[in-house]
Amino acid sequence: MRPLACLQGSRLNLQFGIITLCLVAGWAFLAQGEEVSLRVSQPSVNTTVGQNVLLSVAYACERPPVIEWKHTSPRGTTKVAEWKPASYTNISSSYEDRVNVYENGSLQLLKVDLRDSGYYLVTVRDEFGITFYGTILLNVYEILYEDLHFVAVFFAFLTAVSGLLVCLMWLCNKSVHLLQMERSQLKASETEETELQVMGC
Asked: Averaged over 43-64, what is the pLDDT?
């Protein structure tokens, strides 16, 4: 009686093993047919405060994968967005109205700030759980002081030139006014001489 129970238990284990083996083989066959890949076009991006930045990636997958972006900085890791093309899009509340997501997996940050500096990790995961990762380093800089210095010097130069032009116009106006006064005095003296000559005759 006991050997029969052992035999039934081993048959059950054998059936379970065969089913598991078939499932694993089927999954491997399906996964082998799909070519999943992720390409990061620019691993490091430099920009200045207030600019829009495109973190460009491209994936290859037969079926739409789940795409997730996270931002890692000294302040910690924050989930930026997760979406499945033509299905759903979830954008973190702290990035609402600050990002655009694209079908190819790219992410655009709008009007970046210094706090946006750091590493951006993109994860592309297909329906079988095959996952690919990519990383982009974003450096956000403030507008350099030299640029402001150049603007200030250029503004001072324009102010000096405009002041010089105003002075020249004032001098020209005064000269014209003096010439007109001399002409009017000359005409008046000529008129007096003519009247005296007429009276003298």
From this structure: 91
Residues near 182 by beta carbon (within 8 Å), at least 6 away in sequence = none
C-alpha distance across the termini of the chain, in Å: 170
Residue 61, classed as helix, strand or coil, is coil
Residue 189 has pLDDT above 60, yes or no: yes
**CA triplet 14, 31, 33: central angle to 5 degrees?**
120
Cβ atoms of 71 and 77 closer than 8 Å: yes
Q: Is 149 exposed, middle or buried (0-12, 13-18, 19+ CB in 10 A)?
A: exposed
Contact 58, 105 (CB under 8 A): yes
- Is 0.90 surpassed by the pTM of this model? no
Asked whether the beta carbons of 54 and 72 are under 8 A apart, the reply is no
DSSP string across 92-132? -GGGTTTEEE-TTS-EEE-S--GGG-EEEEEEEE-TT--EE
Separation CA 19–CA 31 (nearest Å):
18
- The pLDDT value recorded for residue 20 is 63
Bridge partners, residue 66, by sequence: 125
Q: Across-strand partners of 200?
A: none
pLDDT greater than 50 at residue 4 = no
